[in-house]
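hiii, so i know i said id send this last week but things got crazy w the move. better late than never?? heres the sequnce for the chain we talked about at the cafe, plus the structure i predicted for it. fair warning i was half asleep when i ran it
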Amino acid sequence: MSTILGLMKQNHRECDELFSSAEDAASTGDWVKAKADWAAFTDELEQHITVKEEGILFPAIESVNGPMGPTQMMRAEHEQMRALVLQIDAAVAAQDTQKYLGLSETLMMLMQQHNMKEEQILYPMIDQFVPNGAQLLQETV
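okay and structure toks below
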């Protein structure tokens, strides 16, 4: 049986792989690949945070427990990530390796801390209080 934790943890790893591939390409100056990989990463990241989390999972847990600190914190961190993504978009467009790598390091640290909180706290909470959460996620996405 699938769980939110299992599904979303796997999606985090998929995002990480796309992110790493884009970073590797940018660090070697392969801007054609970096641009394509960065676009794939940002598409997947936006699907993850906007559709899966903010669109499905957060409303599901809030319908059971009401507005809560963990989802509010995750939304705030999503906004921080989106702001960094816009800055990195500009670095990709300018093919600015130093700016790209500096900003991507910041984004990577934020994502790692964010994912850890979701995987250790929020997703298990959703699995506990929203028993059909994984099914809801799979049917909707």
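btw The domain at 4-130 is CATH 1.20.120.520 (Four Helix Bundle (Hemerythrin (Met), subunit A)). thought thatd interest u
miss u guys!!
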